[in-house]
Design a protein that fits this description.
The complex is a heterodimer of chains A (about 250) and B (about 600). Chain A is about 25% helix and about 25% strand. Chain A contains 8 helices and 9 strands. The longest helix of chain A has 13 residues. Chain A is globular. Chain A starts with 6 loop residues before the first strand and ends in a 10-residue tail after the last helix. In chain B, about 25% of the residues lie in helices and about 25% in strands. In chain B, the strands form 6 sheets. In chain B, strands 4, 5, 6, 7, 8, 11, 12, 13, 14, 15 and 16 form an 11-stranded mixed β-sheet that branches. In chain B, strand 27 and strand 28 form a beta hairpin. The longest helix of chain B is centred in the first third of the chain and has 16 residues. Classes of the chains: A alpha+beta (about 250), B alpha+beta (about 600). Chains A and B meet through strand 1, strand 2, strand 4, strand 5 and helix 5 of A and helix 8, helix 10, strand 20, strand 22 and helix 13 of B. Strand 2 of chain A pairs antiparallel with strand 22 of chain B, so a sheet runs across the interface.
């Protein structure tokens, strides 16, 4: 997916993903809102009306959120908080034409206005995957996740019910790490909600299964690094980059 | 995700059995919540006050449990324990009732017109014959706090006030008056203050000063009176001391004032469904009539269940399991969604009738019902399959090109680095003598520190910064980065675009200008662009440039097919000094999107 756009509008980053306008994540203390350019210049007007409706009163078998949706909120520009904003744009583009099954992925940078510490930064990378087809099931999602994580060297997975504004069901993905003797969360996943897909014009029988994980966290676990600044940024030790062996994760039988 | 703190022993008592930490962790995993931390009440206080003391054996163990952000029915011990008991089939879903009170004797609250200027809505309810002890009282206060923090958005959308009904006399009025005309004894005080005084006084109150902005500058403030003009509350700031709830309170009057009516109803429903289990008539709530300024009246709380018909095949096909009607209804009942066989026509698709109770405001669409069936069944019990669609995969052309180019630069002996995109104005412009470029940049509106002020328009500063932090690395240092910068662009819908750049640096006892020049030639060679003479637009040539970041006379622009695509040169000594780099270096920066 073409993720080379760090600057995004609240519309694509939040509203199209059925994240309500008073959601805590849209707080200025979690998101980098922009001074320049402060507001987005254009939005797809027809689609915007559908998004407004689904938030305010529902539709497509949903009761919506029942609040007054404000255009000014959607127009606020920000540094994207997740690459799911791009996924939303891709799904919208897909829904405008004749549908055929698609699989998308992206690996790129995202920005969070949170307190920084040893394991958290204001910018990091997300890996995202989506499959769009008719008749996909939750069983399919778990099967795909098993295949995916095996290639990262994680063979034992468990799934836990979770919550995201844009997926239902939502599942947190846990992998068993022998080195710690415990289950560690390695990712998040779910089936995209109809309130996201239907206003785009996606046919009713099309489902989208999606998953995401951060790039830094599993890398730190697998390479035994405990400070994220040792991994990337200007403080990284050049000797570490030069002497690190080729990556063979997931290739051992 | 919100976290609630519950006493472990109280929780186990409410669940009817004890668990080891591991067993309880497992229950949480199945249900979709997380046991985040096990601590003690005194440990929490010690942590807050930064004291180190010995652990005493008789300290109450506290469980900190993380719950999903959309489940307001799990925000207190009562709700969580009830949900788990229902999940474990120990008890059925409660049927909440509004008590049958003749309209004439129903408690009333009249809304006055001016409230629409500041806080238009109010909803109320009464809990009759409650029995409170210290634990229940604490839980009651904690729930209000949690709701205020989350759903109420720090009291801006909704504010909750709870009162001892026996200290008051209805009918009540909800009015908006100038702050100087609101006079009462607030909680924790003994003398009277006007709202005007309190706006000033609470500026020094750590907890309350955060809410003053909601009323700041408004000519009128909201206030609730009883028939004897006693102030119940001055929303959203504080309640009156007169009607304060104590452990002896038997009848509780709850009022929620709001700017969002939907949320006010959810908040009121949450308060009453959680605590009506302590009423004399368990799960029964007494209604209040709210008469709005235009004379229309509504009765709250609205505890009616919403009926949903969900198709069985929808549930089965979305989850990927084959389930029968009775199996599905059994699972839904465990998830607090009373369900029965749907009334559908013989021969057509079977449906499930779900009665969504007032505790489940998170259920918006049949997919929410479908998820709960999945949770009840156990996600990990679902058979894992593979999607049947066949698709062709490929990389985005720009990314494929970037990867190939990275490999070529690395093969020329350069080490790749990845640096921050956010930085300060100082580093990105002042320190590299590019003050005039500031207007091309994307600026952050709410940076916590200067480190997050601006989005980079060039990879150069990050590269120099990295070199500055690796001063002891053996020479020559050869680094590169191939990544995005951001430039303002009125032609893009958002007003800015990413641009893929490549930067490479050589640092040694000598400046290595010829090494960097050599890299430029090598890059153009692998991209397939011919070297041509100056002025020829069929290939590339270099031309002297005059950028302040480089040494005068030791820098050049790269012109490729008629446009300038990059620059390289020896870094100016002043710039080196700014980044604390002791040795000379040369650097290049190219916009590779123009090569792609």
């Amino acid at each position: 997916m073409p993720t080379n756009n760090f600057v995004e509008s609240s519309f694509w980053n939040f509203d199209t993903l059925f994240q309500p306008q008073q959601h805590p994540a849209r707080d200025s203390h979690d998101t980098f809102f922009l001074k320049v350019p402060e507001v987005t210049q254009s939005l797809p007007e027809n689609y915007l009306e559908h998004v407004k409706t689904i938030h305010e009163v529902g539709g497509h078998e949903s009761i919506g959120y029942g609040y007054d949706w404000k255009r000014e909120e959607a127009e606020k520009n920000l540094l994207r908080t997740h690459t799911t904003a791009v996924s939303s744009r891709m799904l919208y583009a897909l829904a405008q034409g004749k549908f055929s099954p698609k699989k998308y992925f992206s690996i790129d940078r995202v920005f969070r206005n949170e307190a920084v510490d040893r394991t958290h930064l204001a910018e990091f990378h997300q890996i995202e995957g989506l499959i769009c087809d008719r008749g996909l099931t939750l069983g399919d999602l778990m099967g795909v996740l098993n295949e995916f994580f095996q290639r990262l060297g994680m063979k034992k997975l468990r799934f836990k019910p979770a919550y995201n504004p844009y997926t239902e069901p939502s599942m947190e993905i846990f992998s068993y790490f022998d080195m710690f003797n415990k289950w560690v969360e390695v990712g998040n996943s779910g089936m995209i909600r109809p309130e996201v897909l239907r206003p785009m014009g996606m046919p009713k029988d099309v489902s989208v299964i999606a998953w995401g994980l951060s790039l830094e966290r599993p890398t730190m676990i697998l390479y035994g690094i405990d400070n994220i600044r040792d991994l990337f940024g200007h403080k990284v030790d050049l000797k570490m980059i030069e002497s690190n062996p080729i990556c063979r994760l997931g290739r051992q039988v | 995700m919100p976290t609630i703190s519950v006493g472990r022993d109280l929780l186990f008592k409410a669940l009817g059995r004890s668990y080891t930490d591991e067993e309880f962790d497992e229950v949480c995993f199945e249900f979709g919540i997380e046991l985040d931390d096990v601590t003690t009440e005194k440990a929490i206080i010690r942590k807050e006050k930064h004291i180190n003391e010995e652990v005493e054996d008789d300290e109450e163990i506290i469980y900190k449990i993380e719950i999903p952000a959309n489940r307001y029915d799990l925000l207190c011990l009562e709700g969580l324990a009830r949900a788990l008991r229902i999940f474990k089939c120990i008890e059925p879903v409660p049927e909440f009732q509004v008590s049958k009170v003749p309209p004439a004797s129903m408690i009333k609250i009249q809304v006055k017109p001016k409230t629409s200027m500041i806080r238009p809505f109010v909803v109320c309810a009464v809990l009759r014959g409650v029995a409170l002890d210290q634990a229940r009282y604490n839980s009651f206060i904690d729930l209000q706090d949690k709701l205020h923090q989350n759903l109420c958005r720090r009291r801006t959308l909704v504010a909750i006030g709870t009162h001892d009904l026996d200290t008051l006399e209805g009918p009540f009025t909800y009015e908006a008056l100038p702050p100087s005309e609101i006079k009462f004894v607030p909680l924790k005080e003994t003398k009277e203050f006007t709202a005007e005084d309190l706006m000033e006084k609470y500026k020094a109150d750590l907890k309350l000063k955060k809410f003053l902005h909601i009323l700041e500058g408004s000519p009128v403030h909201p206030v609730i009176f009883d028939s004897k003009r006693r102030v119940l509350s001055w929303p959203p700031i504080i309640n009156g001391a007169h009607s304060a709830i104590t452990l002896d309170t038997r009848n509780i009057f709850i009022e929620c004032t709001a700017t969002d009516l939907t949320k006010a109803k959810i908040v009121l429903n949450t308060m009453v469904t959680m605590f009506s289990e302590y009423c004399t008539n368990k799960f029964e709530v007494e209604p209040v009539e709210v008469i709005s300024a235009n004379g229309l009246s509504a009765v709250y709380p609205d505890l009616t269940c919403r009926k949903m018909e969900v198709s069985l095949s929808y549930i089965s096909s979305a989850l990927g399991v084959t389930l029968g009607v009775s199996e599905v209804t059994g699972l839904l009942n465990r998830m607090q969604l009373p369900a029965t066989k749907g009334d559908n026509i013989e021969g057509s698709d079977p449906t499930i009738s779900v009665q969504v109770p007032p505790t489940r405001s998170d259920v918006l669409h049949p997919c929410d019902v479908m998820e709960d069936v999945g949770i009840g069944y156990g996600f990990n019990n679902i058979k894992q399959t593979t999607p049947k669609c066949v698709t062709q995969g490929r990389l985005l052309p720009l990314n494929e090109f970037s990867d190939s180019l990275r490999a070529e630069v690395a093969m020329a002996g350069f080490t790749e680095v990845v640096t921050w995109i956010l930085g300060s104005f100082e580093e990105n412009f002042d320190m590299v003598k590019r003050n005039s470029e500031k207007q091309k940049a994307v600026v952050v509106g709410n940076p916590r520190t200067s480190e997050f002020e601006v989005v980079r328009t060039s990879l150069l500063p990050g590269m120099l910064k990295t070199l500055g932090h690796n001063k002891d690395h053996p020479r020559p240092v050869k680094l590169f980065e191939l990544s995005d910068v951001v430039i303002l662009d009125p032609k893009k819908d958002v007003g800015a675009r990413n641009e893929r750049h490549l930067t490479a640096l050589y640092c040694n006892a000598n400046s290595g200008f010829e090494v960097i020049h050599g890299l430029v030639d090598r890059i153009m060679q692998v991209v397939g662009v011919k070297a041509v003479s100056v002025g020829d637009n069929t290939g590339y040539f270099i031309q002297p440039s005059e950028e302040p970041v480089f040494f005068p006379g030791r820098q050049a622009n790269i012109i490729c097919k008629g446009s300038q695509i990059g620059t390289f040169g020896i870094v100016h000594p002043e710039v080196l000094q700014n980044f604390l780099i002791p040795d000379p270096c040369s650097i290049l920066e190219i916009n590779i999107e123009s090569l792609h």
